[in-house]
Amino acid sequence: MKKLVVLLLVVALIVGMTACTTAKKVDIGIVLPTKDEPRWVQDEARFKEALKGTDYSVEILFSQGSSAKEKENVDALIAKGIKVLIICPHDGGAAAAAIEAAKKEGIKVIAYDRLITDTDAVDFYVTFDSIAVGEAQAKYLVSKAHGTGNSLYLYAGAASDNNAFLFFEGAWNILQPKIADGTFAIKNSSEAVALQGKAKLSRDEMGKIIGQVTTNWDFNEAKNKAEAHLTSATAADKGNVFILAPNDGTARAIADAFATDTAVLSYTVTGQDAEKASVQYIIDEKQAMTVFKDVRTLVKDSIEMAVSILGGKDPQTTGSYNNGKIDVKAKQTEVIVVNVDNVRAALIDSGYYPASDFTGLQ
Ligand code: BGC
Questions:
Q1: Which residue from 22, 122, 151, 229 has the highest number of Cβ atoms inside 10 Å of its Cβ?
Q2: DSSP 351
Q3: Which has the closest alpha carbon to 125: 151, 94, 101, 99?
């Protein structure tokens, strides 16, 4: 009996040791929100490109639009011994629980593209200038509108994404004076109409409008909303219309809905991300513009931050963002407006996409 116990103990020890030596240690964990949107698949590809030849071990996981899955991913990475977590949250508020668990283990957390809100567990933030994104979209609409009473349809991102507020705030900065002076007339949001006299909106006020015109970053929701708006709009509310669409995926869905309505004579629709499908839409003049966010820069910035942290140094930052609880040190990147006139220069000549991915490119 004694011998058997000893034997079992030895076996257990060997199994334990093998497990220890084979369990892969990971230095940097990266968690992205979903594979269902080309934007984040693009980020994954750019991370892989940038990480070729690195001495650090890195693992990238996707949360598939679920905060529960996101928490599981973070826990799995914590168990693998990560020192730095780079995370783009599915839901900026809900992600706090996941990163607080990481913080407890001494892991440094970098919020990637989307801020994680109402927690002190986020150490750094790498982001594009999201206010500038919304401003660029709105400026484009303004530049194409002539006369007064132009029909304006507003759409927004998911309210669980802090960026949706920043994009909307930027757009409102530019659109509101042009609504006040009669250039535009809002057609699809009673909340926006009720607030159209106010130059600066509180987060709650923006929340009311976003609550009405959210796409939840979902193509189907965007399409269904656009169709419902067109059904309830009169012919006079159609004609030549202007559409603030928050990103490329929703822009294409909304554009397709407006394109099938015979009372819509023309539509000018904005976008964001320079997704390949939208670049083709721009070449085909089915989407007016996009805001190009060079993901290579964001990837580079976040890896440089992680490497600084791993080397015991202070990462470089350019400012800070308040997340409702603390000021998070941030590194911010500019954005580039792309339309049919500069699509080649901005996206092909810059080496971002090969020309062969598109047809009809001038
Ligand atoms: C990102 C956009 C993206 C959107 C939907 C935002 O937080 O900044 O680039 O289109 O989420 O995924």
A1: 122
A2: T
A3: 99
CA distances (Å), origin 240, targets 150, 151, 215, 340: 7, 7, 22, 19
CB-ligand 1 contact for 333 (6 Å cutoff): no
Tell me the residue range of the domain where 110 lies: 25-122+295-333
Angle between helices 95-104 and 67-79 (to 10 degrees): 10
d(CA 261, CA 264): 6
Long-range contacts of 318-323 (CB under 8 A, 24+ apart): 321/115, 321/125, 321/127, 323/115, 323/116, 323/117, 323/118, 323/119, 323/122, 323/125, 323/162
Quote the ligand 1 centre to 247 CA distance (angstroms). Answer: 7
Residue 86 inside a domain? The answer is yes
Closest CA to 77 of 47, 52, 91, 57: 57
Report whether 161 contacts 214 (CB < 8 A).
no
- Residues 327 and 344 grouped into a single domain: no
Q: Which atom of ligand 1 is nearest to the CA of 247?
A: 10
Q: What is the pLDDT of residue 24?
A: 74
Intra-chain end-to-end CA distance of the chain, in Å: 83
Locate the ligand 1 atom nearest the alpha carbon of residue 248 and give its number. 10
Q: What is the DSSP string of 38-76?
A: HHHHHHHHHHHHHHTT-SS-EEEEE-TT-HHHHHHHHHH
CB count in 10 Å sphere of residue 307: 17
Same domain, 64 and 211: no
State in Å: Cα 91 to ligand 1 middle. Answer: 12
Tens of pLDDT along 190-228? 999 999 999 999 999 999 999 999 999 999 999 999 999
42 close to ligand 1 (CB < 6 Angstrom)? no
Kindly state whether residue 19 falls inside one of the protein's structural domains. no
Ligand 1 centroid–CA 228 distance in Å is 24
Largest CA distance in the chain: 95
What confidence tens digit (pLDDT) does each residue in 37-54 have?
Answer: 999 999 999 999 999 988
